[in-house]
UniProtKB/TrEMBL annotation:
InterPro entries: Cyt_P450, Cyt_P450_CS, Cyt_P450_E_grp-I, Cyt_P450_sf, Plant_metabolite_P450s. The keyword Transmembrane helix applies. It comes from the Eukaryota. One of its GO terms (cellular component) is membrane. It holds the Pfam family p450. This is Cytochrome P450. Its cofactor is heme.
Length: 466
């Protein structure tokens, strides 16, 4: 009897070993269809493929190094999951010229419940009715040209407040943290545009700014969770979830409190069109698309995080580059003085008359893009650059590498705003080489607002910097 039990146990062990081997073989070693038509691939490790390349504090720089060595259009693999890494402006042009709708999805969500970049938000949501409805609503109420014109007075008030804060610190001989001051200006502007007076009255700016900074430190982990979700779910692992969800829950609690107080004083918030329409849609009041209260909070979370972090970080980089390049700083100050004068504060209506300021901002975005990697997903198989890309393949565009490519940018690592004045860079057709806010139908809808906020913040600092 013992011998029989031993034999049964041995057979069971063999079955388990065989099953394990078969699982690894099927999921990690099976060859994809059209393997000979795939883009070239750098050497990979057994089982994990190119996974080790993702675990870096600067993934975009690691990818840039790989592309420099093996090519600007590469096929990567994490376990059995395919990725395509692109850092070629001509290939990106082809993708979005011929396959924009095919790559309109951003792929898997890292953490469904997360208030930022989760399944309830706008940024990562699939291309469909919900995404189209929210984009239309945001554009018509907040980010479109007419909406921006309606809210110009709100941003003017915040620019004055921004200036007074800087002067107050200077009078007290206190140091100025440019990133913090810019973030305060951006968040107050967004809050006033979307929620009216109650935003500043409740001192919400400082609370939201803390979460903007916290989520900026978590963005790499959220990106990794998004990229690795499918293979890790198979083995029951969800890295970083506790840390991310702890921040998410606290952020959601803050937003819920802000919305509740807004609802208590709803008659006092003239101009807060987006909040009113989102809340009405969540209650099902004559809405084109029914949304939930969590959708409302997620949209505002992504609005504050996306616009706040992007605009404040770019402002900080622009000022750092200007301080390190005093001749460029002086040229910019001379332009502002000639247009604005020295007796009043720069205004939004001045920005179109300041080409060198716009060039400084563009050059800052080129060297320090807010979105260094742009992830998408191929919904259908297709041909790109003569290679076959399978359905479900993740597309990663290395915007950082593209905007520092010496084949397309003269002296790519130098801060030279003049290149955007049309004096140095040749105009090339059939390429996309400058994409700090993404590209295609899933490009950042807030790029116009970001340029206004960054231009105003940098302009005010340059006017009164000593």
């Amino acid at each position: 009897m013992a011998n029989v039990e031993y034999q049964n146990s041995f057979i069971l062990i063999l079955i388990c070993l065989f099953s394990t081997f078969y699982f690894f073989f099927v999921y990690f070693f099976k060859k994809p269809k059209n393997v000979f038509d795939l883009p070239p691939s750098p050497p990979s490790l057994p089982i994990i493929g190119h996974l080790h390349l993702f675990f870096s504090t600067s993934i975009h720089k690691s990818f840039q190094k790989i592309s420099s060595k093996y090519g600007s259009f590469l096929h990567l693999r994490i376990f059995s999951l395919p990725f395509v890494l692109v850092s070629s402006p001509s290939v990106v042009y082809e993708i979005f010229k011929d396959h924009d709708k095919n790559v309109s999805s951003r792929g898997a969500v890292g953490f469904d419940e997360c208030i930022v970049f989760g399944s309830s938000g706008f940024t990562i949501s699939p291309y469909g009715d919900y995404w189209k409805y929210i984009k239309k609503l945001i554009f018509t109420t907040t980010l479109g040209p007419q909406a921006l014109e309606r809210s110009r007075g709100v941003r003017g008030v915040e620019a004055e407040r921004f200036y007074r804060n800087l002067v107050d610190k200077a009078m007290k001989k206190e140091s100025v943290e440019m990133g913090e001051e810019a973030l305060r200006f951006v968040n107050n502007s967004l809050g006033g545009m979307s929620m009216g007076r109650c935003f500043t009255e409740e001192n919400n700016e400082s609370k939201l700014s803390k979460f903007t900074v916290e989520f900026a430190s978590l963005i790499l982990k959220i990106f990794l969770a998004q990229m690795l979700r499918s293979p890790l779910e198979k083995i029951g692992i969800s890295p970083f979830k506790k840390e991310v969800m702890d921040a998410s829950n606290r952020f959601e609690e803050l937003l819920e409190g802000i919305i509740v107080k807004y609802e208590e004083k709803v008659d006092e918030h003239e101009g807060a069109e987006i909040m009113d329409k989102l809340l009405a849609a969540s209650r099902g009041e004559n809405a084109e698309y029914k949304i939930t209260r969590k959708n409302v909070k997620a949209i505002f979370a992504e609005l504050f995080f996306g616009a706040g972090d992007t605009s404040s970080t770019t402002t900080q980089w622009a000022m750092a580059e200007l301080i390190n390049n005093p001749k460029i700083f002086e040229r910019l100050r001379e332009e502002i003085d000639s247009v604005v004068g020295k007796k009043r504060l720069i205004q939004e209506t001045d920005l179109p008359k300041l080409p060198y300021l716009r060039a400084v901002i563009k050059e800052s975005l080129r060297l320090h893009p807010p979105g260094v990697l742009l992830p998408r997903q191929f919904e259908q198989g297709c041909k790109v650059g003569g290679f076959y890309i399978r359905k479900g393949t993740t597309l990663i565009i290395n915007a950082y590498a593209m905007m520092r490519d010496p084949a397309y940018w003269r002296d790519p690592d130098e801060f030279k705003p003049e290149r955007f004045l049309g004096q140095e860079e040749e105009k090339r057709e059939n390429i996309l080489k400058f994409l700090p806010f993404g590209v295609g139908r899933r490009a950042c809808p807030g790029s116009n607002l970001a340029n206004i906020l960054i231009g105003t913040a940098v302009g005010v600092m340059v006017q009164f910097f000593d």
